[in-house]
Amino acid sequence: MRQQCNKVRVGLLLLFAVLAAFTAAQQGPVKCPSEDVKPTGSAYRIGLAAHSKKNSCELYLYISVDPSRFVREDMLALAERLNHDFCYENQLIVILLDDYYAARHPLRNTKAYWDAERGTYYLDRKTGRQFIKFSTSRDKPKDEVEIDLSFKAK
Q1: 87 burial via Cβ count (<10 Å: 0-12, 13-18, 19+)
Q2: DSSP state of 21
Q3: Residues near 3 by Cβ (< 8 Å), separated by ≥ 6?
Q4: Helix or strand or coil: residue 80?
Q5: The model's pTM
Q6: Beta bridge partners of 93
Q7: ∠29-138-80 over CA atoms, to 5°?
Q8: Cα distances (angstroms) measured from residue 136 to each of 54, 63, 93, 151, 154
Q9: Confidence check: pLDDT of 37 > 70
Q10: Looking at residue 124, what DSSP letter applies?
Q11: What confidence tier does 56 reach under pLDDT thresholds 50, 70, 90?
Q12: How many other C-beta atoms lie within 10 A of the C-beta of residue 24?
């Protein structure tokens, strides 16, 4: 089972790398104005960003967050901020990591990437589906905490 999950992850990483290569010439994601978002606990750094070429044109982000911020309150603030910062995006898929280098180079540094990966944030404005999954520490599953935010999607 674990080998199958690792194969799927490696396949997804390769897919994201190909997507990033094809979209390198495209304009990066456009952030929305940050007016009413609380900065406490929701700071992040974008390591890698790419739009898919499919009709849905999802935005994939690899971001790093301070390891001490992987707690419920800060992750809710992060979800709110990402929802607001990327208000022009219809679909947003964010891979949460606790190390900027791993977020910047997910394929070059496989061991560091797997160690640093801590969760996922997903937003689909068309369906209203929104959730965040994360682990409170590196040694716990990446879906240790799951929060469904679908009713708050804008």
Answers
A1: middle
A2: H
A3: none
A4: helix
A5: 0.74
A6: 60, 122
A7: 35
A8: 33, 16, 20, 24, 27
A9: no
A10: E
A11: confident
A12: 9
Residue 127: C-alpha distances to residues 51, 57, 132 (Å): 19, 15, 16
The token pair at 122 is 């997903």
Q: Which two tokens stand for residue 29?
A: 């994601």
Write out the residue range of the structural domain in which residue 85 sits: 2-152
Number of domains in the chain: 1
Per-residue pLDDT tens for 103-153? 998 886 678 889 999 999 999 999 999 999 999 999 999 999 999 999 654
pLDDT at 44 (0 to 100): 96
Residues contacting 63, CB < 8 A, separation 6+:
44, 45, 46, 47, 94, 95, 96, 97, 103
Q: For residue range 72-109, what is the model confidence (pLDDT) as tens digits?
A: 999 999 999 999 999 999 999 999 999 999 999 888 66
**CA 117 to the chain's CA centroid:** 10
Token pair 């009709």 is at which residue?
Answer: 55
